[in-house]
């Protein structure tokens, strides 16, 4: 049977579960305590049709190195192969544009991102695509904000979004 590798990385925003297939990084999950980790691994096994294997030294060595460097302030752009198999259609198109077109330290509005993929009226659909992002942090959905400058939603929670934007110099450091 096929397998995928996973590990948990300690970060300033809490533990991240990261998983990779032979094609590349396939999943990043926020707040990966034991319960969330076990649930996410079960879901990934089902969606990928593969067995989870805990290993931080094989396929995940470079993703772990880059995530550690990012959270230490020493990496501005991830250069990892990505496995897009958990995303499709419009969502994948939006996420690919986000990954390629919104650099470290910048933000984009939901409507602006919709226009970039040729769907100017699809701001809400862009929001749904952000919510479905299987690769947060690496595919930087935290950089998508409301047109009026409000943060908007975030699957990892608004405090996590604030911390990521502060790390990138977009927001002042949170007080706590």
Biggest sheet: strand arrangement: 3-2-1-4
How far apart lie the N and C ends? 45 Å
What's the SSE pattern? EEEHEHHEHHEH
Q: What fraction of residues sit in β-strands?
A: 15-25%
Biggest sheet architecture: 4 strands, mixed
Number of strands: 6
State the shape. globular
Oligomeric description of these chains: single chain
Low-confidence stretches: none
Would you tell me the structural class of the helices and strands? alpha/beta
Helix content: 25-40%
**Mean pLDDT, rounded to whole units?**
94
What does this structure look like?
The chain has six helices and six strands. The strands form two sheets. The protein has a four-stranded mixed beta sheet. Strands 5-6 form a two-stranded parallel ribbon.
